[in-house]
Amino acid sequence: MAILVVAEHDNRTLKSDTHKAVTAARAIADDIHVLIAGHDAEAVALQASAIAGVTRVIRAEHLRLQKPVSEDLSRVVLQLANDYSHVLAAATTTAKSFMPRVAAALDVAQISEVTAIVTPDTFKRPIYAGNAVATVQSSDRIKVITVRSSAFDAAATGASQATITLASTVLEPALAQVVSQQQSVSERPDLTAARIVVSGGRALASAENYQQLIAPLADRLGAATGASRAAVDAGFAPNDFQVGQTGKIVAPDLYMAVGISGAIQHLAGMKDSKVIVAINKDADAPIFQVADYGLVADLFEAVPQLLSELDTVGA
């Protein structure tokens, strides 16, 4: 049977997480269908049809899907799910909301945060904040899976175009609706897709120090800005900057941890980064156990020196 990948998009642009979910799907089977649930999302469907390995794109069109709630998204998926052996989505905030509803309605177990495909019915996923990896085998007739985007490369965009079809979308009377939506806009790269991430921790001591040290360093490097949970809880950075088990999972080419001790929940969100650089004045900080490069120094001295060196190189 075919595999259904539920796309992540904003009705204009397909998110890169969908490309990574397609890569995971291709490790299971060759017949991959992508579901675009939205409103006036023709452009998104065209983008999905060009992904290498996608054989069909299904458009579910409805006004309520312009800003969908999880109840509506799960209903759309359920109208199609019985025709597939696997239903996949990237493990984003959106998917974490509607995919469990899909699994419950199908009376199957959801397999979450998959990081590797062993066989079509066997998968690897991290447990205990990433300190162990479980190999999970499922005998469910339909396997409902979310995949950790940082564990898979993005599928390339090919020259061929997959067939695009329009599904018959029926939604029950709404029990909930989106009243308003606020989205932070930044000129910096998106945290989960950035090649370089600079994160600050509680040792920064204030939001002003975060803005004076972390933000300029990120700008010099063309990086996204992140933060530890302690820094977010203290109000140094907004919640959507949080990296960790209860925040965002990242795996950039370069991760810089400034003033971050390296609590287990933070390490779970960034330890798969290709190169990790840590700056901390505590030589015994756990972050140094996973760092490729470590600098034992006062961040209030080290970061300005680093900024000065970067300005010299840039000049």
Give an overview in words.
The protein is α/β, with parallel strands linked by helices. It has two domains: 2-167, 3-Layer(aba) Sandwich (Rossmann fold), CATH 3.40.50; 196-314, Rossmann fold, CATH 3.40.50. It is 28% helix and 26% strand. The protein contains eight helices and 15 strands. It has helices spanning 16-26, 42-49, 70-81, 93-106, 207-221, 229-233, 264-270, 299-314; strands at residues 2-6, 32-38, 54-61, 84-90, 110-114, 116-119, 122-127, 132-137, 143-147, 163-167, 196-200, 224-227, 254-258, 275-280, 293-296. The strands form three sheets. Strands 5-9-4-1-2-3-10 form a seven-stranded parallel beta sheet, sandwiched between helices. Helix 5 links the parallel strand 11 (196-200) and strand 12 (224-227).
